[in-house]
């Protein structure tokens, strides 16, 4: 199953507990059901409009836009709920003396703390990259921001493939 409800790498998924992985799986299944339902609604409405001879009117575009917006809002609610759960269900026993580990902070704040630490501590981009990928706490702590910073470090260090 492809997990696209959240942007966690395989290494981050590996740091999750079994209960957290099940929550991710359930959210992904909900999203997949919503996707199928949306496609079925599109097909039914298209058939109805073709049968009625009004498919080429603006009705189809308006209908699609309205359904897509409602779908996107539902998926966003599922995603936000999952991220909220993962944010507060993280293993709080994970600590490091490198930077502050506070799971009550928002992801943006966590990202800023970790980024600031690595940017100030390591001048050499390759050294910074290697230290970051070895940081097991950051994988869980940064959530969806982990791949963002990893990509930045890979670019700066000239690394082309993810470890």
General description of the model:
The protein is built from seven helices and no strands. The chain has 163 residues and is mainly alpha-helical. The model has no long low-confidence stretch (mean pLDDT 88).
**Beta content:** under 5%
The number of helical elements comes to 7
**Measured on Cα atoms, how large is the radius of gyration?**
21 Å
How many β-strand runs? 0
The ordered H/E elements are HHHHHHH
Biggest beta-sheet profile: none
Q: Can you give the mean pLDDT?
A: 88
Please state the structural category. Answer: mainly alpha
Approximate helicity band: 55-70%
Extract low-pLDDT stretches: none
Short description:
The chain has 163 residues and is mainly α.
Helix/strand layout:
Layout: H1 10-15, H2 18-52, H3 59-88, H4 107-121, H5 125-133, H6 136-141, H7 146-157
Helix pairs in contact: 2-3, 5-7
